[in-house]
Automatic annotation (TrEMBL):
NCBIfam families in UniProt: tatB (TIGR01410)
Record has Transport as a keyword: yes
Keywords: Cell inner membrane, Cell membrane, Membrane, Protein transport, Translocation, Transmembrane, Transmembrane helix, Transport
PANTHER family documented for this protein: SEC-INDEPENDENT PROTEIN TRANSLOCASE PROTEIN TATA, CHLOROPLASTIC (PTHR33162)
Chain residue ranges for the region called Disordered: 65-85, 138-162
Subunit structure: The Tat system comprises two distinct complexes: a TatABC complex, containing multiple copies of TatA, TatB and TatC subunits, and a separate TatA complex, containing only TatA subunits. Substrates initially bind to the TatABC complex, which probably triggers association of the separate TatA complex to form the active translocon.
Database matches in Pfam families: TatA_B_E
Compositionally biased tracts (Basic residues): 152-162
Name of protein: Sec-independent protein translocase protein TatB
Name of the coding gene: tatB
UniProt-annotated location(s): Cell membrane; Membrane
Cellular component terms per the entry's GO annotation: TAT protein transport complex
Top-level taxonomy: Bacteria, Pseudomonadati, Pseudomonadota, Betaproteobacteria, Burkholderiales
Length: 162
């Protein structure tokens, strides 16, 4: 870059004072400062654009690498799935016997009957066994209220003017 020392700047200022004159020098200095500021902003914008494009290229490369890794995982999963299906079919080969009718005899001559299962999980366990004192302390509502009643309850009361 250009090496500008104090002596060179003083020489440029003296020449500008002689050539331009003392009346127009402040206006020219402001114009030159404005142009230098615009040039610096333009250079900064160009640098930012170059950085963005470099980051975009890096992101594209990263995206390509992630997509290739995903394809590799997908092929390995598909091959593993076929191996799993093969081993599963081998393991369950003897389990495809037809079911017996109720009352038929098993291998020992004993009749086979279906076992009764209650439809609920455990009917001896009490459902919703939360004590009332806990509900009131925790702020759990125990009574329902309609929407209109709730609005009426929380509506501000009109103040009476005396």
């Amino acid at each position: 870059m250009i090496d500008l020392g104090i002596s060179k700047l003083a020489l440029i200022g003296a020449v500008a004072l002689v050539v331009i004159g003392p009346e127009k020098l402040p206006r020219v200095a402001r114009t030159v400062g404005t142009l230098l500021g615009k040039a610096q902003r333009y250079v900064a914008d160009v640098k930012a654009e170059v950085n963005r494009s470099m980051e975009l290229e890096e992101l594209k490369k990263m995206k390509d690498s992630v997509e290739s890794a995903a394809r590799d995982v997908q092929t390995s999963v598909e091959s593993g799935a076929s191996d799993f299906e093969k081993s599963w079919s081998e393991a369950t080969a003897g389990l495809n016997e037809p079911l017996r009718e109720p009352g038929e005899a098993d291998a020992y001559g004993q009749p086979v009957f279906p076992v009764y299962k209650h439809p609920k999980k455990n009917f001896r366990l009490k459902q919703k066994a939360v004590p009332q004192w806990f509900k009131s302390r925790a702020g759990i509502r125990t009574r329902t209220q309609s929407g209109a009643a709730r609005v009426a309850r929380f509506r501000p009361r009109p103040s009476s003017k005396s």
